[in-house]
TrEMBL record:
It comes from Agaricus bisporus var. burnettii (strain JB137-S8 / ATCC MYA-4627 / FGSC 10392) (White button mushroom). GO terms for biological process: maltose catabolic process; sucrose catabolic process. Gene3D superfamilies: Glycosidases, Golgi alpha-mannosidase II, Oligo-1,6-glucosidase, Domain 2. GO terms for molecular function: alpha-amylase activity; glucan 1,4-alpha-maltotriohydrolase activity; oligo-1,6-glucosidase activity; sucrose alpha-glucosidase activity. Residues 17-445 form the Glycosyl hydrolase family 13 catalytic domain. Transmembrane segments: none annotated. This is Glycosyl hydrolase family 13 catalytic domain-containing protein. It comes from the Eukaryota. CDD domains: AmyAc_SI_OligoGlu_DGase. The keyword Hydrolase applies.
Amino acid sequence: MVYLHERTWWKEAIVYQIYPISFFDSNGDGIGDLKGIHAKLDYLKDLGVDVLWLSPIYRSPLADMGYDISDYRNIDPRYGTLEDWDTLLHGVHDRGMKLIMDLVVNHSSDEHQWFLQSRSSKEHPKRDWYIWRAPNFDSSGQKRPPNNWRSVFQGSAWDLDEETKEYYLHLYVSKQPDLNWENPDVREAVYDLMKFWLDRGCDGFRMDVINLISKTDGLPDAPISAPGEFYQPASMYFANGPRVHEFLKEMNEKVLSRYDIMTVGETPFTHDASALAAYVLPKNGELDMVFHFELMDVDSPMEGPQRVPLIKKDWTLEEFREIIVRWQLYKRDEGFWNAIFIENHDHARAVSRYGNDSPQWRALSAKMLAVLEITQGGTLYVYQGQELGMQNFPRSWSIEEYKDVASQNYWNRIMKKRQEESGNQNVDMSDVLDGFAHKARDHARVPVQWDASSNAGFTTGTPWMRVNEDYRTWNAASQLEDPSSVLAFYKRALKLRKSHPLFTYGEFSDLSNGHLQVFTYLRTLGGSHALVLLNFSEEKVHFDLKGVENLDTYQLLLENYESQEVKSTKLAADGRVFLRGFEAKVYISG
Ligand code: GLC
Ligand code: CA
């Protein structure tokens, strides 16, 4: 059989993302930990995943939940010790799985030794490890940041160091100063810490905002796209910058190519396919794949060049489908490889966004989305709780329950603006909370719902974040017992993906023909074909299959409804298909 893509383990892998603080708490302090992950390895093996990706567990002040690292070579005591990590790794490897770590090297924590030294004086050899600039002055002689860049989490992207009277750049919060990748010593230090983990047995990296490591020369002011505001979205000057590919080629040459590992880059702020492909195409020798955010952005409005993630925008199936189809077809002949995901720790729950989380449709639409995921070409990622159909927490939760710094900063900024505009302290924020209820990152960060005991069995103590009350009926223990559960469906679906290489490697062709509710496609590899039918609406719909040959050879492989009204495992000879609300079906031939 001829494969367009060379086969490798990481292409076929099903990756499961763990957000450790909310996964499972082994010692009752309310915080998930490494021993907790170890305790659930059999659950994960049984689910059918191959690779575990851990969101950061390094020592960190947790200003951005560990995406602010103060020691790259140690585990935060809240999560455990290096020995616990070794034990976990053994447990993972013993079960035939692999473990990848989150590499967060666009920035460190301001509590990292490197930054403490860098800020200590202008003369310190590590001064140039971060991005320091002299202040600007306004007409009244007041100090101003060196440019108008807005930090991704609001406010200026610069902070003044009072001692040395210079500003440092932080694309995220002030406690996340950006490393200066222009400095070769910084790059060597990063490569060293990567080797530290790889030599210890780690099987690869997910690379945090890796497309931001090179900034445009001269750090020019961003054009005004948010009129009336001082700080402007500036991703055109910090995403996919001039030297990013040079740096990644160097990293590949010096580190990645020397190990049998997998790498996936997180590449936000760009929808430009050819810019993203440059990181992935095998001939470039950089990364194995990247996470693009087009699908995640489909329900976010634009503000100048950037999306506003915390406001909900309506989306259509047509837009959604067009994005998936385009990426499924993109540069296959050159070996471009996709990363397939619909949830992670930075986004609200998929069933609440792209499915329908009302009681009638929740399980069905969660399963329909599972089918969408397992039938796409690329490496598949599943986020913790996705396999249980975990949904957003309720709109009735108040702002106090939102622990994410991105939510809090956004809330405070809007509130302040409204207070200033109205001269009144009491301003209506209900529309902002509406947006949060749909879109906030917090929804993905509540504890995993393990069983019906108190706190969803996540902890015997007080959980760091409130548990969603629906755990009493929606939890892993009860779903393990129930063959019709979302979890049981995931297990079946993941197994099918693994046993049919066409889902991972096959050609993709869209057959949807502009249908308003249905997404239909054919996957083909050699002589085998899979036909996927997905109804994205609550309505009963008809679909006419056109252009599919030998309809009579197709057999039903997977469906999300338990019982067929008309029991049939075949397609109708005339190609007319009837789908119930959120129904998903996969047929296979050859
Ligand atoms: C990535 C992470 C996100 C974090 C940001 C800054 O987008 O996934 O959680 O806030 O980088 O490190
Ligand atoms: Ca704990």
